[in-house]
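Input (structure):
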């Protein structure tokens, strides 16, 4: 049995976008870096949970925050930089 070919997308150039995150972004109808600039982590996190019917790991919010930050500023920071922010906003 052969593995499916990895998906290709400009989104993979973002530091925190893996193949799994790329699939989530495609499910959310996000196909370009420019589309991320008008998003919020809260919106994407809630929408992903609605679309999948599954409660997502809270770290997914952190990844959304990191990739939106990179899309808007160009600054590449690891997703865990946003964990403290998420925990403080709750």
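Output (sequence):
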């Amino acid at each position: 049995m052969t593995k499916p070919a990895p998906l290709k997308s400009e989104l993979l150039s973002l530091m925190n976008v893996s193949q799994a995150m790329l699939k989530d972004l495609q499910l959310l109808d996000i196909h370009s870096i420019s589309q991320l600039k008008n998003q919020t982590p809260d919106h994407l996190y809630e929408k992903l949970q609605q679309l999948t019917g599954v409660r997502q790991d809270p770290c997914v919010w952190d990844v959304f925050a990191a990739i939106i930050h990179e899309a808007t500023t160009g600054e590449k920071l690891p997703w865990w930089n946003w964990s403290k922010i998420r925990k403080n906003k709750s």
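Notes: The two ends are 45 Å apart (CA to CA). The CA atoms of residues 11 and 22 lie 7 Å apart.
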